[in-house]
Amino acid sequence: MKKLISLLIGCSLALSGAALAQEPTPAKGKRAPEKPRTTEAQQPKGKPAKPETPPAKQPGAMKERGATTERGATTEPVAGKGRKTAASPESATTPKTNVPGQPAGAPSPGAKQQAQERRKGMKTPPANTKAPPKATPATAAATAAPPGPASPAGKQVKGAGAAKKPDPQKVQQIKSQHANFRAQPKPQQVPAVTFNQSRRIEGSESWQGPQYEAFRSYHPERHDQGWYRSHYNRVELIGGGYYFWNNGYWYPAWGYEPSAEYYAYDGPIYVGHRAEPPDKVIADVQAVLQEMGYYKGEVDGLLGPLTREALTAYQGDNGLTTTAAIDQPTLDSLGMG
Predict the structure, then answer these.
(1) Which strands, in side-by-side order, build the sheet including 269-270?
(2) Closest by alpha carbon to 51, among 123, 135, 107?
(3) Which value, in Å, is the radius of gyration of the alpha carbons in the chain?
(4) Phi and psi (nearest 5°) for 242?
(5) Who is most buried in 119, 132, 136, 308, counting CB within 10 A?
(6) Does residue 178 sit in helix, strand or coil?
(7) Greatest C-alpha distance within the chain
(8) Rounded to whole angstroms, how far apart are CA atoms 276 and 178?
(9) Dihedral angle at the C-alpha atoms of 327, 328, 329, 335, nearest 10 degrees?
(10) pLDDT tens digits, residue range 24-49?
(11) What pLDDT digit, counting tens, does each position of 169-205 carry?
(12) Is 289 helix (H, G, I), strand (E, B) or coil?
């Protein structure tokens, strides 16, 4: 009986040993999944793994990370500089999107960069957000309407666009200085105009008011001395040409003396009812406009192009009709009427 029991136990042990011999080795089965980790650990440090993988290879990469996380590891064995694991805070906050070919919950390619750009956009205000507060009304006004240039003496130059009246005391001083002023012809500096019977003062037809009637009706006429003396009681040689006086204006006396027909301006010159010589009045106007910064030429008593340009600028700045001539409104505005 004992021999039979011993034989059964021996057979049983033999069968158990044969069964154990046919089973695969447990160590090899357990260490098989760790081969990818060993391969990753042997990866050279100079060539870090790319943080983002193409969609075709990413499922395997995510499976490898999942195995590492299941074993409780928080960092990869040897990762490239700046690479973070799946357990890092940044990966936890990275938005997940479903991309075809990727497992659910996996980050899409470039998700980390997009998250960083969104965070930067939230922290950094747009470059032009502070532009509107700087554009204050005062700054806009200064930009839209810059002040006119100033002369070296700090005076307003012609055409600056701001009305300015002369100093009455300065005007009286200038008038007293020119009490005996006499103009001289200067054809080289101020060319003479020529006689043209059909000439009309340009733009005068639109000058409204009786104060401009003399300019609207003016046209040059040529007569001899007898005709002028029979029509006007005052004819004088002034600045190289003869002028006749009529109702507050001096006019060129064309034909009075053909050898003395130097006229810098062909038209009426208003001087008021005191009948002051036209060259003296022109010199007064030139000096006052020069004092105000409008006239840059010489005070010569000749109504040439520079004087007419200065008159145009002064008239425009003071709301007067731009006649480019000495008329009643302009003379009154200058305090010489």
Answers:
(1) 235-238, 241-246, 249-252, 269-270
(2) 107
(3) 53
(4) -90, 140
(5) 308
(6) coil
(7) 185
(8) 11
(9) 110
(10) 544 444 454 444 454 444 444 444 44
(11) 999 999 999 999 999 999 999 999 999 999 999 999 9
(12) helix
